[in-house]
User: Fold this.
Amino acid sequence: MKTINVLLVVAVAAIGVSTTSCDSIKSAKLHRDVDSASYAIGVVNGFGFKQNLDGFPGDPVNIDALIAGLATGLKGDTASLKMTQEEAQAYIQTYFTQAQEKDNAKIQEEGVKFLEENKTKTDVITTESGLQYQVITEGTGEKPTATDQVKVHYTGTLLDGTVFDSSIGREPAVFGVSQVIPGWTEGLQIMPVGSKYTFWIPSELGYGERGAGGQIKPNSLLKFEVELLEIVKP
Assistant:
């Protein structure tokens, strides 16, 4: 989840917003060079600001309320403030913390529900750890151990089908069996060389509560299609 940099918000407000009136915004006069420069800065930063807001947690941001707060602060109209700066900072922190917790809980619930339903399928095997897998192609080679290096092709997707990483279209990945997330370490040792499996990795065997990068959120269930090409010998 993206988070909003409060300092960026203030900076954008100071250079990009001067009124809460839509009519006034539409009728902005660009008579002088400084007028055009001011407007240009507002356009560039406004669109950047909007992109940040696309990751706003919970309900969509209330633009009218946001602009009203910005205008009040810019004018220094302390008599019209509905909360002090200190209260506003505290509220932002609390809001984002609670929204993050709600999002994380929802993601975990969705993952648990999926795994409960998925394990009832006849061709899906669930291990003691909770890892689930399905054999697409069963190879005839040896199985790697935890100390081996392997060469694989893979595609990783989120529960909604979003592809977050894939080796397809590039060179196969080479790494140590114990140098990856626990779900991979366990799953690879189940596969004979030449196999292609689908793995569903619970969050506790993946990136857990920390998530990874911008796409893999905390508590995410991960799906991988993995083809074990070979065990790389020293």
